[in-house]
């Protein structure tokens, strides 16, 4: 009579299998972001907390305009010229202000205008512009070249023109952002200048926001 074989008769005496530990995960090339670029917390300038906030004073606005003007890599690639009208592009906006880049071909002019309730700071960054202003005290004129700043208050009445033979570029900051620009005929200069002076003297329109 054949002997029956007891299958798995000794299994109960075998220890339970122990799973092998999984290898620690590694990048396929053995490198990580930290090993390549370094620990970002080791570079304090990447986590600065003392960076200036948006400007709120006339001095802060003037400093911002100077900084933007000095950063040619920021604005120079954006410059365009339009033979039919002055070209402009908005460079930056912030709480209560905006910054514009303008270009002027020879002969292009803004015409006599004011900026409504907005104050402003402007500078020329390429070429030269001529400014003519009108006030109750009469007419004034000046040449604007790179490096200088012009600051104006609400109601300031002036005209800017490129009277040279070369293109010009300027940067303008308005606070609050420019929402109106009233045009005046040149013949009405004295009267408009007096009205602008009276408007600028109003207490609620004279301060820089």
Description:
- InterPro entries: CDO_1, RmlC-like_jellyroll, RmlC_Cupin_sf.
- This is Cysteine dioxygenase.
- The protein is α+β, with helices and mostly antiparallel strands and 209 residues long.
- Helices cover 19% and strands 27% of the residues.
Query: Helix and strand string, N-terminal first?
Result: HHHEEEEEEEEEEHH
Mean pLDDT: 78
What's the end-to-end separation, in Å? Answer: 111 Å
Query: How does the major sheet shape up?
Result: 5 strands, antiparallel
User: Which spans have pLDDT < 50 for at least 5 consecutive residues?
Assistant: 189-194, 199-209
Region (Disordered): 1-21
Biased composition (Basic residues): 1-14
Protein name: Cysteine dioxygenase
Binding site for Fe cation: 113, 115, 158
Please give a handful of descriptors for the protein shown.
27% strand, five-stranded antiparallel β-sheet, Cysteine dioxygenase, 5 helices, disordered C terminus, elongated, 209 residues, three-stranded antiparallel β-sheet, dioxygenase
Question: What's the topology here?
Answer:
Blueprint: H1 33-37, H2 58-70, H3 72-75, E1 87-94, E2 97-104, E3 112-113, E4 119-126, E5 129-135, E6 138-144, E7 150-152, E8 158-161, E9 168-175, E10 183-184, H4 189-201, H5 203-206
Antiparallel strand pairs: 1-2, 2-9, 3-10, 4-7, 4-9, 5-6, 5-8
């Amino acid at each position: 009579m054949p002997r029956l074989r007891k299958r798995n008769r000794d299994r109960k005496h075998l220890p339970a299998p122990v799973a092998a530990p999984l290898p620690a995960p590694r990048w396929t090339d053995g490198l990580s972001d930290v090993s390549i670029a370094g620990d970002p917390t080791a570079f304090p300038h990447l986590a600065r907390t003392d960076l200036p906030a948006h400007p709120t004073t006339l001095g802060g606005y003037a400093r911002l305009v100077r900084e933007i003007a000095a950063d040619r890599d920021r604005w120079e690639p954006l410059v365009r010229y339009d033979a039919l009208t002055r070209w402009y592009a908005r460079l930056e906006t912030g709480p209560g202000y905006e910054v514009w880049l303008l270009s002027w071909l020879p002969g292009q002019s803004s015409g006599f205008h004011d900026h409504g309730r907005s104050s402003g700071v402007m500078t020329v960054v390429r070429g030269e512009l001529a400014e003519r202003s009108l006030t109750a005290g009469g007419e004034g004129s000046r040449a604007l070249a790179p490096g200088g700043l012009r600051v104006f208050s609400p109601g300031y009445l002036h005209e800017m023109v490129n009277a040279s033979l070369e293109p010009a570029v300027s940067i303008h900051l308005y606070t609050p952002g420019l929402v109106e620009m009233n045009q005046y005929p040149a013949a009405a200069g004295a009267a408009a200048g007096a009205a602008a002076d009276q408007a600028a003297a109003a207490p609620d329109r004279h301060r820089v926001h």
